[in-house]
């Protein structure tokens, strides 16, 4: 979906009109992928707009910065407040939230340390990532011919702009071959994740998902779904999975801030389970949507209200 091109972007503490939020083409990040970022969402709920797990997202941003030796004069609360301030300044009700920290304009040697660490917070309205129909019917995916990054090459736990060169290869190949998404294996052939989503398989009523050592991003939706599943008494195991475990699963689903909870109905043209959204996926999907939409009580303290919340009795 094209950008609306309106609203204001937070740039190094100032709110700048969308069209003026530019950087120089000789900025380090443009050449060497020296940026880290987040993707979070703010949802409209009956008690007003609420960001989902904003603290966890901003904490992960700080962790990505730490790995890449980036320092910026904001602490966790400072980042959270900057996001909330930007949403309020744009009077947004529901939006996608993209904080970005990057190496700016100074020199173009590979060494990033000479270049200033700059930051931006960009907001836009973004609906369902893989389409509304996908949430109900599921998506057709393929195993990517591209592997995820090998351990000790590019750190998968950092949400760095550089990692998305790999994601783009996976996504482009999937689209070129007529699929909605790709699932990448790690270099040892274990299931890793989608181009921008983690994944779960369901087998005999239990959930399995690759562990962080299999070159995944430590997803916040993944963590939320594991928590919701355990609340239901569903067993959740983080374990390495061979490719064929996907084909033999009763259900497979993607999770992520963009994809939310999206069923996978086929992989490499092999139907998964009944070839449509399965009951465990549907149950967890509903539980997830009920939390983010403020339909069920926020038992885990996952929602940060942007504006003064409506009193509880107004629910
Ligand atoms: C590569 C990758 N894996 C997993 C995820 C899911 O992470 P989260 O649930 O925190 O959005 C994302 C999305 O940010 C991603 O880009």
Question: Care to describe what's here?
Answer:
By secondary structure, the protein is of the alpha+beta class. Helix content is 27%, strand content 27%. The strands form two sheets. Strands 8, 9, 10, 11, 12, 13, 14, 15 and 16 form a nine-stranded mixed beta sheet that branches. Strands 1, 2, 3, 4, 5, 6, 7 and 17 form an eight-stranded antiparallel beta sheet that branches. β15 and β16 form a beta hairpin. α2 packs across α3. The longest helix has 14 residues. Pyridoxal-5'-phosphate binds next to α6. The site of pyridoxal-5'-phosphate has 13 residues, from α6.
Care to give the gist of this entry?
It contains eight helices and 17 strands.
The SS-based structural class is alpha+beta
Query: Could you say which small molecules are bound to this protein?
Result: pyridoxal-5'-phosphate
End-to-end C-alpha gap: 32 Å
| Biggest sheet statistics | 9 strands, mixed
Describe the global form.
Answer: globular
Runs in which pLDDT lies below 50 for 5 or more consecutive residues are: none
Fraction of residues in helix? 25-40%
| Rg, alpha carbons | 20 Å
Strand-residue proportion: 25-35%
Total E-strand runs? 17
* Topology order in helix (H) and strand (E) letters: EEHEEEHHEEHEHEEEEHEHEEEHE
Helical segment count? 8
Q: For the residues shown, what is the average pLDDT?
A: 96
List keywords for this structure.
alpha+beta; 9-stranded mixed sheet; binds pyridoxal-5'-phosphate; 17 strands; 8 helices; 315 residues
